[in-house]
Design a protein that fits this description.
Largest sheet: 6 strands, mixed
Structural class: alpha+beta
Pfam families: SBP_bac_5
GO biological process, one term: peptide transport
Organism: Actinocatenispora sera
Radius of gyration: 23 Å
Oligomer: single chain
Shape: globular
Protein name: ABC transporter
Number of strands: 23
GO molecular function: peptide transmembrane transporter activity
CATH superfamily of the largest domain: Periplasmic binding protein-like II
Number of helices: 14
CATH architecture of the largest domain: 3-Layer(aba) Sandwich
Amino acid sequence: MVVVAALGACSKNTGGSGNGGNENDVTKNTGGISNNPKDSQGPAPAVAGAKKGGDLQILQTSDFEHLDGQRTYVVQAMSAEQLFSRTLTMFKQGKNGKLTLVGDLATGPGKDLDGSKCMNWEYTLKDGLKYEDGSAITAKDVAYGISRSFSSQIAEGPHYLAQWLANDVNYNKTYKGPYNGGADIGPGLEVKNDKTLIFHFKAPHCDLPFALQLPTSTPVPKAQDKGAKYDLHPFSSGPYKIKTYNRGSKLVLERNKFWDPKTDPIRHAYPNTITYNFGPTDTTETNRMIADAGPDQYAVAQENVPQSLVPKVTGNASLKDRTISGQGPFVYYVAVNTQHVKDLKVRQAMAYALDRKAIIQTLGGDALAAPATTLLSPTVIGWKNYKTFDGGESGNPAKAKELLAGKKPKLIFGYRNNPWGQRIAPAIQQSFEKAGFKIVLKPVDPENYFTELGRKDNPFDFYITDWAADWPTGAAVLPVLTDGTSIQPNGNNDVSYYSDDAYNKKLDAASKLPSDQSADDWAKLDQEWSKFAATIPVYYNKSLSLTGSKVGGVELSTDLGTNVYTSVYLK
């Protein structure tokens, strides 16, 4: 049985207005949790016309910040990890972007032992699961992997499970993970036997099956754990394993001969090897795909088509079959570091001054972005449009100056030092300086960008970042980005560092509701949060990228909002 819920879908662009603020412009689909055991069984249905063989080349501007599952929270890395890491559950994507949550390592999406109270959940591992050395994957390895996520040494990944298991947003206040003498298995986790893991919560967590599709539930055998160095060679539980990894240059994946497709309902593993090549700019990637010469026929451009080449790509009918395009789940927003910018009127002035139209034009126009005024994406269940401190698409410098009342605040803007960031930074700088601000640009290494923003003591006054719901409810957005009680020294996702006690209590109350009852609460909290002007939505993303002519099966993930390669093959 499939429990139906509305899920946002990435579909082909249809030439709409690109407003982003009109519910009619949002493509939606249905999907949900499958309780039919057959949906969790492998092998995955064959892709028509696909065959095994060849070396897929993926062109990517920057290396991954992390490949350790418990440290990963950036979608390109999560896409790569699907090739060599498995999780307890996973989304299976069907036609038109329809998502169904199924068991990946587990035989299904989980059993609520209390009927529907969502406080005790049981997961059973499938038969025949093995690592890259042929050893068995066990429930203890999954529990150990989750327990690692409590450690402050590897704090960059999702914190849902640790917070829920500890029953505290400050999840590592008591149990600090398995390092430095800590127990191998953290609170709330019961390893019943080699194949059975039970989660015990002190409060209801009905979204657990969704949370377990995040890489936090990747199994890690203790003997292979190298702490922070595990990033360089995560131990494979998937169809590929790491052959070589030269940081900043190249990652080569080769087959894991111990992966059994009969256990896997999603992955195919058609190419013999998959190679990530780090360094080419988005312009270089796109031009190489257009030229389609030699080995590039077997390549994929990971980055979106840059502004300068959008007309060339969209106007060339011969590229249509090699174009990966659609509406994405991401909201890009300015996060104001409220530890530094404490004056509400200054933050309101920033919101009024923002020229979304100019910023979107630097990206490539309506083909790649639509103006955003909400922190929740239109692809989230219950999304409602609102406009708070809104100066219109081109901003309102006069209103911003009125709020500043003669002040000319000097603010440090930390921007991602890659082609995207280099284009967008001047547009944001000019947007604010028209209203009287003095903006100092500070580049940040793109391979450490989110790590730097997540440091509570970071030196920047504001930055632009992005977020997509980990599953399509407000529970996977607002508690992560806006709960001030969760702020830690490192690894923060609430990078505005703002906290309001009354608002935090409302977040906690909404988090305890089943997902089918909480949609209106999340929409109201989204709008309430906007009154603090701690985050300023900029745009909803769209995707537009190219593949070589000999590549098939690349999908734009409805879940991740980036290219995924579980069905990729070479012609």
